[in-house]
Write a structure and sequence with these properties.
Layout: H1 17-33, H2 37-52, H3 56-67, H4 70-82, H5 86-108, H6 112-122, H7 124-128, H8 134-164, H9 174-194, H10 197-203
Helix pairs in contact: 1-5, 2-3, 2-5, 3-5, 4-5, 6-8, 8-9
Length: 205
């Protein structure tokens, strides 16, 4: 497993996780309510500035996360070019890039344990009625930590295919990718069992 927190210290690293997640929710709502192209251009420029202020290393790490969106950007752009609604398409693309970029910025400046602590606090009412929230907390942690791992493995599979064949990999890597994901899931389950499972987590929160 890897941590998505950036080793480059910024001022935002010292902000409370709950505050950052709350601001992210508000910013996302505003982004989806706004329809002005100027507003979204300004918001995206502000995002890039926020990435650039801590330095080149932090900026490159942030932009790498946005590069993963290029297939969606291409599809949205193509559709709106065909339908001759380029301005609306550009608004959607900027909205998507800014929203994902802000979420990634929060992830890069917040320790996973701090985010889980916020989830645990929000789930307090559920525990009051007898529900076990450690399942939710663990699921969120695993999604955040293993999404980039699976993306990396998918990229390596694609590169391995291209090294051996002139044809595009396409659907052909789905089966080996699924096997890799299931193998990782088995290892995670074994690790949880070795540590006592969720009962141990309940005893040692």
């Amino acid at each position: 497993m890897i941590s998505l927190t950036s080793p480059i210290e910024t001022r935002a690293h010292g902000w409370p996780a709950g505050l950052k997640l709350g601001l992210l929710c508000v910013a996302t709502i505003v982004l989806f309510k706004a329809e002005s192209l100027i507003f979204h251009l300004t918001a995206f420029a502000g995002l890039l500035m926020a990435y650039a202020l801590p330095g080149t290393v932090f900026l490159k790490a942030g932009l790498r996360a946005l590069k993963l969106l290029w297939p969606f950007v291409a599809l949205v752009a193509l559709y709106h070019i065909v339908t001759r609604t380029s301005v609306e398409g550009l608004v959607i693309i900027l909205r998507m890039l800014t929203a994902v970029g802000l979420a990634n910025l929060v992830t890069m400046t917040t320790r996973l344990s701090d985010m889980i602590a916020v989830v645990r606090w929000l789930a307090t009412p559920l525990r009051a009625i007898g529900l076990r929230t450690e399942y939710l907390e663990t699921a969120i942690a695993l999604v955040i930590r293993f999404t980039p791992v699976l993306i990396s493995k998918g990229t390596h599979l694609t590169e391995a295919w291209r090294a051996r064949s002139a044809r595009r990999p396409g659907w052909r890597i789905i089966l080996p990718f699924t096997v890799l994901a299931l193998d990782d899931a088995d290892h995670i389950a074994d690790a949880l069992r070795a540590r006592g499972g969720f009962d141990a987590m309940k005893e040692n929160p």
